[in-house]
Model the fold of this input.
Amino acid sequence: MSARAVVPVVVVLVTALPVLGLCIAQALGLGLRRGRVRRSDAPRAGTWTWWRRAALVVVLGVVGLTPTVAVTQAGGARVGVQLWFVVDRTGSMAAEDWGPGDPVVRAPGLAPVPAVQRLDGVRHDVVSLAGDVPGAFYSVVAFADEAGTQLPLTDDATAVRAWAQTVTQEVTAGSAGTRRDRALEVLERSLRDAQDRDPGMVRLVFYLSDGEQTADEEPGTFASIAPLVDGGAVLGYGTPAGAPMRTYDGTVDPEADYIPDPDDPSRPALSRADEPALRQVAAELGVPYVHRDGPTSTADLVADVDLDAVAADGRTDVSARRDVVWPFALAAGVLLAAEAWTWARASSRWRRRR
Done:
């Protein structure tokens, strides 16, 4: 049991303690005075009146503090699915080694590569996964040189498709190096907020990236958010052999120049997918790693979502506090009735004497 303190504790103490002290002092003093005069045959009505008033002060103080008890309502939280898409928008996601594009030679000495970007695979898979879980809530967290929520949790699947159709790589000139944990802080905050609001929801995280890291900092671990994640997958794009990437200045240009190799500007730079890093992220999150090399079905990635199991594991139970005032209010009513009766008797006697 705890107190909700409808009336501030300080106000209760400042108001009740002096009155309580006065009542106790009167009761003790009156009893002592009468004990000296009459001993065993002394009337005790006055003493008990002050003790009753002291009890009334205590009960009213407890009512002001408003005691509460914890209660649990089984199945009180809503049940559903929430999907987070954590999308890599760095320049490496423009590498042209995903999907069923016609193989072409992009530069002398390079092996033929498909002319479809890794980011095209992301677009396909985001839309496909949203369609695989209709009626869910969706959120998109994207990262490049910075991370941010580009789509807050919404049940509007068309908003997800609209985002996927318009997402682009970062502007090449503003690239500040790739870190695969760039979205970790934003994702954790979003997951915790969602858990606090809707503890009964199933939370799925899909991390879509090529795993490449060019920044010098050691990446952080996703293990800290694993308890917040019920499922999902890490989806990998690209090949270990790598592929060139076109520059991007904010406008879509299919014939834009390739990003040059910093060691040999006469050749395009190659971005190589880092599958071991992606497998590590998957292990930290406690979800499977899946390599995506074409626009195949994603239904099997969400096939094991079981809302009945979630409802049975207790997370849909809602904990709350319930006020327990009525016993003390009832006691206060009885004491007030006794006080009124005492005053009525005293007034009647006083009128008869006059």
